From TrEMBL:
Organism, scientific name: Solanum carolinense (Horsenettle)
Signal peptide: none
Keywords from the named record: Chloroplast, Plastid, Ribonucleoprotein, Ribosomal protein
Name assigned to this protein: 30S ribosomal protein S16, chloroplastic
Gene name of this polypeptide: rps16
Gene3D superfamilies: 3.30.1320.10
Classification of source organism: Eukaryota, Viridiplantae, Streptophyta, Embryophyta, Tracheophyta
Main location per the UniProt record: plastid
Compartments it resides in: Plastid, Chloroplast
């Protein structure tokens, strides 16, 4: 099963996160299938590769709660066919 989750990057006290598609059995810093976005909570910046995210969601990938909140703010689920995420 594939999940969309955050992968921590950056230095101490200055964490930034990549949004990645990754196997559920992998560790947080494990090998990801594809990088699909970027999130900086300090500057409150977000970059999303929307076509890649939609591809993984249509194939059955499950976003974590935090990633789901980020995607809702960016209104990504409105581009997806009606499902349980709306």
């Amino acid at each position: 099963m594939v999940k969309l989750r955050l992968k921590r990057c950056g230095r101490k006290q200055r964490a930034v996160y990549r949004i990645v598609a990754i196997d559920v059995r992998s560790r947080r810093e494990g090998k990801d299938l594809q990088k699909v976005g970027f999130y900086d909570p300090i500057k409150n910046q977000t970059y999303l590769n929307v076509p890649a995210i939609l591809y993984f969601l249509e194939k059955g990938a499950q976003p974590t709660e935090t990633v789901q909140d980020i995607l809702k703010k960016a209104e990504v689920f409105k581009e997806l066919r009606p499902t349980k995420f709306n």
